[in-house]
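Need residues for this backbone.
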């Protein structure tokens, strides 16, 4: 038995000499079991017979044993925080400047990490409105010590059921071709993704001569297998192939603690070469001809508050010139409406269908601006907030900052929204037996103007009363009702006190007021009042939903919560859910801000989660 063990140890020592990994007793035992697997494959009964064969065919066997002994644990978008970082922080900066980017995945395994990076990059481009033929240059190099793994990478063929679990149906249909005949249960990465990637056999302990410089190097979940001295040698070798201020990304269980290397830890096992930590400022650009407003924003958007005002302009013409050469591109643009040369509406129209940061309109809120306010939201403005005047309350300042932060957040993420879509969860399948509703209630906030237009313009005749709370400034609700009347073939009212609800009509809560439903003489009546804000909102979705839940008359209710920040409506929707109402939440992918729907889902108050494009079809089905 001792002699047998020596044969195994000789082979393991040969492999260890090549890959230089540290093996404790547990790993030696595991390696022994894997060599036994090789014996079975070749039909050798005894280790000594295999060892003789091994010595005669050492090149081929070393190749196969390296593949068996090295770690191949991998999946698409493994450790997703790293892909969030690429999608949110790195790729947009390169894409907006049309700047080439080079990335090295130093432990490619089966290619899933390399192709995940490519998909992440393409999704970031598409999010910014850039078609495939116009994407900025990217080169992704995948290397592995195992030549068999590199062959698998090049093939890019995977079991379909495995990939669907890892990335979901949306991405698999977008970036993979389905196999036929003997490969009918497999998928292959599309050529459009494959052409962005190259693969090579490479030992990390050997300094590459022809790799060039990279902006990002990923060496995830591999250095834990090396001795401390080898880890430092690997990192120092990799350092020579990083551009200045390049990024090194390790696995979550790995770190450079205790190793003297020229890297600064940022977060989540991500390191920056030769640089101090750069604070994650929210960068803002202001377009407003009023010096007092620009001064005010300079005072409140400070570095101490994690904001950085990267530029300002008196009008959009000047802004476009500055932005075209600005070193630090903004996360968010604050835009006034009334300016010389080009006004805010004209600028939004110019930007329509072009990639640009989220835009927060900050302008006057009055009756004369109401139509323009609705038009801004239709043109894709993230939100419309009132321009500060006179003494500024603490709540006003907090609201401005929170809106900017939410606007920045809305531009993130993107491709990962498709990855684990709520709507793919069986829990959210549409119930089979849904009673035809007697009343439909809808709550929406940021992004809600577009969402409401999408839903209401597809509703047919013969529907019950629809009551809506859209978080909207005073004066704007009337303009929104007028706009919806232009688009819809039925009547849309701005809700009035004592108004009787009728079929085939829509009632929109007035801005700056609370609206609820009460019973009076067997009829449903609107009550519009000046009750204080609920959840910092007036009108409040919860205020409307709670009133419906408290009705004594037996009604079949359908309630929807759409895109919006915060949690208004979540508790009210749960109350309706508990009273047997059928409840729907807009999904994350189609929401401008997945705040209110997310909160409602977390409370367990949602029967079905659906994309915005699917919600009209669901309503048609139950009506």
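Answer:
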């Amino acid at each position: 038995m001792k002699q047998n063990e020596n044969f195994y140890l000789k082979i393991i020592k040969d492999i260890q000499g090549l890959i230089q990994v540290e093996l404790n007793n547990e790993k030696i035992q595991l390696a022994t079991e894997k060599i036994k697997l090789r014996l079975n494959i070749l039909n050798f009964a005894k280790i000594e017979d295999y060892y003789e064969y091994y010595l005669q065919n050492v090149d081929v066997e070393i190749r196969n044993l390296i593949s068996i002994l090295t770690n191949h644990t991998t999946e698409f978008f493994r450790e997703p925080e790293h892909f969030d970082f690429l999608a949110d922080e790195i790729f947009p900066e390169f894409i907006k400047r049309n700047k080439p980017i080079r990335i090295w995945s130093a432990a490619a395994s089966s290619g899933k990490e390399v192709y995940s990076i490519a998909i992440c990059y393409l999704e970031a481009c598409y999010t910014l409105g850039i078609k495939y033929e116009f994407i900025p240059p990217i080169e992704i190099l995948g290397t592995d010590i195992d030549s068999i793994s590199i062959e698998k990478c090049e093939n890019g063929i995977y079991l379909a059921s495995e990939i669907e679990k890892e990335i979901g149906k949306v991405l698999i249909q977008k970036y993979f071709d389905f196999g036929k005949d003997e490969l009918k249960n497999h998928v292959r990465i599309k050529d459009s993704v494959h052409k962005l990637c190259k693969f090579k056999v490479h030992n990390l302990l050997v300094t590459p001569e022809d790799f060039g410089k990279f902006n990002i190097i990923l060496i995830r979940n591999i250095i834990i297998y090396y001795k401390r001295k080898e880890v430092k040698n690997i990192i120092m070798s990799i350092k020579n192939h990083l551009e200045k201020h390049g990024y090194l990304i390790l696995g979550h269980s790995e770190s450079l603690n205790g190793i003297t290397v020229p890297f600064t830890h940022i977060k989540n096992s991500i390191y920056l070469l030769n640089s101090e930590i750069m604070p994650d400022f929210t960068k803002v650009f202001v377009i407003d001809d009023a010096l007092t407003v620009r001064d005010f924003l300079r005072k409140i958007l400070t570095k101490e508050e994690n904001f950085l005002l990267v530029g300002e302009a008196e009008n959009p013409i000047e802004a476009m010139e500055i932005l075209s050469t600005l070193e630090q591109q903004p996360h968010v643009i604050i835009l006034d409406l009334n300016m010389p040369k080009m006004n805010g509406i004209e600028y939004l129209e110019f930007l329509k269908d072009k990639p640009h940061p989220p835009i927060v309109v900050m302008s006057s809120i009055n009756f004369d601006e109401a139509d323009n306010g609705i038009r801004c939201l239709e043109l894709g403005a993230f939100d419309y907030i009132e321009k500060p005047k006179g003494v500024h309350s603490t709540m006003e300042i907090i609201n401005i900052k929170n809106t900017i932060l939410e606007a920045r957040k809305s531009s993130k993420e993107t491709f990962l929204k498709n990855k684990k879509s709520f709507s793919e969860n069986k829990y959210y399948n549409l119930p089979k037996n849904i009673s035809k509703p007697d009343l439909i209630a809808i709550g929406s906030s940021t992004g809600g103007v577009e969402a409401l237009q999408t839903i209401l313009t597809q509703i047919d005749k013969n529907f019950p009363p629809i009551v809506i709370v859209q978080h909207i400034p005073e004066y704007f609700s009337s303009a929104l009702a007028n706009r919806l009347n232009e688009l819809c073939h039925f009547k849309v009212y701005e809700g009035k006190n004592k108004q009787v609800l009728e079929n085939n009509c829509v009632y929109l809560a007035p801005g700056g007021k609370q609206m609820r439903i009460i019973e009076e003489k067997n009829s449903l009546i609107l009550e519009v009042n000046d009750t204080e804000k609920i959840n910092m909102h007036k009108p409040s979705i919860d205020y409307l939903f709670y009133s419906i839940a408290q009705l004594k008359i037996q009604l079949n209710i359908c309630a929807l919560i759409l895109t919006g920040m915060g949690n208004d409506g979540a508790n009210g929707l749960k109350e309706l859910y508990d009273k047997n109402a059928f409840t729907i939440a807009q999904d994350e992918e189609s929401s401008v801000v997945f705040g209110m729907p997310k909160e409602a889902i977390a409370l367990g108050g949602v029967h079905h989660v659906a994309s915005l494009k699917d919600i009209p079809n669901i309503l048609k089905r139950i009506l």
